[in-house]
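Subject: sequence -> structure tokens, single chain

Hey, anyone have a minute? Need the predicted structure for the following. Not urgent.
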Amino acid sequence: MVEAEFILPRTIRSFKDLERFVWQVVRQAVAEAMEAACRGLDEVVKGPGPGWESVGYQRRTVMGLGGVEYRLVRRVYRRRAADGSWEYRCPLDKALGLPAEERFSPLVQERAVALATRMSFRKAAQVLQDEGIPVSAQTVHQWVQEAGAARESQERAATERIAATGELPASEGRSATAVVVEVDGVWLALQRAKAKRWEFKVGVMHEGWVAEDPRGRRFRLQGKQAWGGDLETEPFWERGFVRFTSRYTRGQVQRLVGNSDGAAWAQAGREWLGIEEWHLDPFHRNEALERVLGWETRLLRRAQKAARRGDWAALEGVLEQAKVHPDRAVPVEAIEQVKAYLAAHREGLVDWRRMGRPLPRVARSLGAAEPTIRHLINARMKHIGGGWSRRGAHHMILLRCLGHEQRLESWLAEWTAGVWQATSCAPVLQRLARHIRRRVVEGAVQQRLQAHVPLLSHPEARRSALGDELRRRLSPRVWWAATV
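Reply:
Had a minute. Here:
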């Protein structure tokens, strides 16, 4: 590893300088301990077997969190393949589970993907660069696409397994007073595509609301699940069906409620999930009424009240009155279009809390799809970056759904585990980890700190209260615990 340019003790004039100096010491000590331990491991790992010849040593660099650069020197073997070409193998890489030609550690990849789901690829790369990790925005984008493709493969495999075997996934056996399924579409700008915009489907499944503060001013969804992406109607509802059946037992759900803007693809969920009770989303209902009655507040309020009660006759009367109102500010045709839209969904106009059926402990007005889209899609995919490919947007939505459910970090750990395979040398790696810890905590760091901060080793300092305090604050054990 290249020797770090340490801040000299005489230039340390603030706690900031001191912290930077100690971190440089620890970082180099960790890298050197790792490299030394791996050199020892390379000597004891068995070769690939008969037919392989050693071609000497090669150096490989792997960048870890915090900008720690591991420069591993290991033996390389080769042999002739059946087609006459050379194939190469490195026993140490196999023992450590290192993928071929990978330059960054799995923890770096996990952090990069997690950052990219919250900010642009360029900003995510800049954050990592500020931490000493020289990664480009293109590399971060590539990792996001690889992770998204892996997630898509999982979700598609789950639905294909049901279609092939006819067996439902194992259920958690969860019961609920009510399960609410709310869906909607969101349009995103595309780049390098014939279509300028494309609709992506989003669904959220929950069991009601939970107050987040004692006053009951903020609420969050209980038992929330989210899914969606660039999906046709059938694949979209297949994935919703998998989520429902893998969590609930149908007979233990007292009430199953659907909610949407009335689109045909959305209402297909009634058949897929067996939803008998489907409501027109209050947001879209009120938006339609405001579009044609916003010019007259009294008519608008009467229409909204009638819609909440599910009183179609009263609502129709208000719309007819608006058509002949002397101050009418919208065309009659617009009122007729809204009337036809509401008439097509008249059974779903009534507020779901007015139907005399079981309700969760906290029951609020339906409409979780719109805020879900704002947090899940718009916050990352509209406000940051101007355009997406359909494939790239689909992968990002899959990862954002995991984050929306607080499962992204655990899923990313599983994803990298599938690439950075656990090996049969696990006991050896555990001994290697103990060796590195002992070398860093008890050896290299202590020596470097004493070399660069003579106060720690001065006899007078050992006897002074200031010396005791400094040794305690600069203890390698303390810094290791804070940085690991």
